[in-house]
Design brief:
The protein has 333 residues and is α+β, with helices and mostly antiparallel strands. It contains ten helices and twelve strands. It starts with 14 loop residues before the first helix and ends in a 13-residue tail after the last helix. The structure holds ligand MTE. Ligand MTE binds at residues 22-23, 96-100, 154, 189, 208, 237, 250-251, 253-256. Heterodimer of a catalytic subunit (MsrP) and a heme-binding subunit (MsrQ).
C-alpha cells in the first residue's frame, strides 16, 4: 500500500499543482504498475565489475578507446558507491523530470532529440581568477572519468539508484581558481526554446538555475555527470553535463549546464523562486521535515513494490551532516 499523501501516488488536482510540484506524475497508478512489473539489477550483476559502466557500445578497439573518454579504465567500487540495486537503464531514461522537455514523466525521452549536446560550451566565471568559455569535450578531458553509483531521492517521494560517470565538482572548481570572495556556486541550464520546447511555456522561470554553498560544492560526493550506465548521458537525463548531489532532493541536480559561476552571495534557485514556502536553497533530504503538502518520511524506489523509509541526507549523513552543524534544518530546508 502506498502513501496517498505523496504526489508520487496521487492524481494532481489541477494545473496549479502540476506547476508547483517538480515533475508531478500525471498518471501515477499506471506508472506504478508498469514500474513494479519491471525488474532491477544489482550493482554486482552489472557485468562482474564496472567495465560496462565505462564503455560505450562499439568502443572496444585500442584506437576507439584512445579516442573515447568513456573507454578509460574503470575503478573498483569506491567509498562513495552504494551497493544497492541499480535502476535499469530503461527506467532511468524514460521516467524523468526535465520540465524544459515537458511536464509528464515520459515527455523528456520523447522530446530529447531536439536537444543537441554537441557542439556545447560551458562558461566558467564569477569569482574566479581566469574566467573562460570551454568546449564540453575539452572540459571533460581535464579530468579522469569516475563511476559513482548514487541514490537519487526526488522531492516527490520516489527514488532511483543511478550509475553515473563523470568527475568530482571539486576538481572543476579548483581548476577555476576561486578568489577569496567566492562563497557559492551558481549553475545555469541551457536557455533555448528551439532545443528545449518546454521553455515556450512559462511554467517555471527559465533558464533553470541551481546553487550550492562552496563547501558543499567542494565535498567529494558532489559530482558532475557526463555519462549514465556506461553510456554518454542521454538528453533526457541532462546531456551533456549535469549535477549529482545525492544527499539533496533530485531537483538540485540541474541538467544541461551551460554556465558555472562562483558568487559571493547566495544565488537564486528555480524551485525556491517558484514556490519559496515549499522548496528551499538547501533541499537536503530530510524525512523529519514534511513538504507542506506531503510527508517525506518514505519513498518508492522505482522498480519496487511498497515504500521504504527515507534516510536523513538520503543515507549520506556520515559524510555530509558536519556541513550543517549548528544549522536549524527546519529553517534552512
Ligand atoms: N534540470 C533541469 N534543467 N530542468 C528540470 O526540470 N528537474 C530536476 C532535476 N534537474 C530538472 C533538472 C528534478 S525535479 C529531478 S527529480 C531530477 O532532475 C531528475 O533527474 P532524472 O530525470 O535524470 O532522473
Amino acid at each position: 500500500m502506498t502513501d496517498p499523501q505523496t504526489p508520487d501516488d496521487a492524481q494532481p488536482q489541477d494545473q496549479q499543482r502540476r506547476i508547483l510540484t517538480p515533475g508531478s506524475d500525471l498518471n501515477p497508478r499506471r506508472e506504478f504498475l508498469r514500474s513494479a512489473a519491471l525488474f532491477t539489477v544489482t550493482a554486482g550483476a552489472l557485468g562482474g565489475g564496472l567495465e560496462l559502466l565505462t564503455r560505450r557500445p562499439g568502443a572496444g578497439s585500442a584506437e576507439a578507446q584512445s579516442a573515447d573518454p568513456f573507454a578509460r579504465p574503470a575503478r573498483p567500487l569506491g567509498p562513495y558507491d552504494t551497493k544497492e540495486a541499480v535502476t535499469p537503464y530503461g527506467q532511468a531514461t524514460t521516467y524523468n523530470n526535465f520540465y524544459e522537455l515537458g511536464l509528464d514523466k515520459a515527455d523528456p525521452a520523447r522530446l530529447a532529440a531536439s536537444l543537441k549536446p554537441r557542439p556545447w560550451t560551458v562558461r566558467l566565471d564569477g569569482e574566479v581568477r581566469k574566467p573562460q568559455t570551454v568546449d564540453i569535450d575539452t572540459l571533460q578531458s581535464w579530468f579522469p572519468l569516475e563511476n559513482r553509483i548514487y541514490r537519487m531521492r526526488c522531492v516527490e517521494g520516489w527514488s532511483m539508484v543511478m550509475p553515473w560517470l563523470g568527475f568530482p565538482l571539486a576538481a572543476l572548481i579548483r581548476r577555476m581558481e576561486p578568489t577569496s570572495k567566492a562563497k557559492y556556486v551558481q549553475f545555469t541550464a541551457l536557455l533555448d526554446p528551439k532545443q528545449l520546447p518546454g521553455q515556450r511555456q512559462a511554467v517555471l522561470k527559465w533558464p533553470y538555475v541551481e546553487g550550492l554553498r562552496l563547501d558543499e560544492a567542494l565535498h567529494p560526493l558532489a559530482f558532475m555527470a557526463v555519462g549514465l550506465h556506461g553510456r554518454v548521458l542521454p538528453g533526457q537525463n541532462g546531456a551533456p553535463l549535469r549535477l549529482a548531489v545525492p544527499w539533496k532532493y533530485g531537483f538540485k541536480g540541474i541538467k544541461s549546464i551551460v554556465r558555472i559561476t562562483l558568487t559571493s552571495t547566495q544565488p537564486q534557485t528555480t524551485w525556491a523562486l517558484a514556490a519559496p514556502s515549499e522548496y528551499g536553497f538547501y533541499a537536503n533530504v530530510n524525512p523529519a521535515v514534511p513538504h507542506p503538502r506531503w510527508s517525506q518520511a518514505t519513498e518508492r524506489r522505482i522498480g519496487e513494490l511498497g515504500r521504504r523509509k527515507t534516510l536523513p541526507f538520503n543515507g549520506y549523513a556520515d559524510q555530509v551532516a558536519s556541513l550543517y552543524k549548528g544549522m536549524d534544518l527546519r529553517k534552512y530546508f
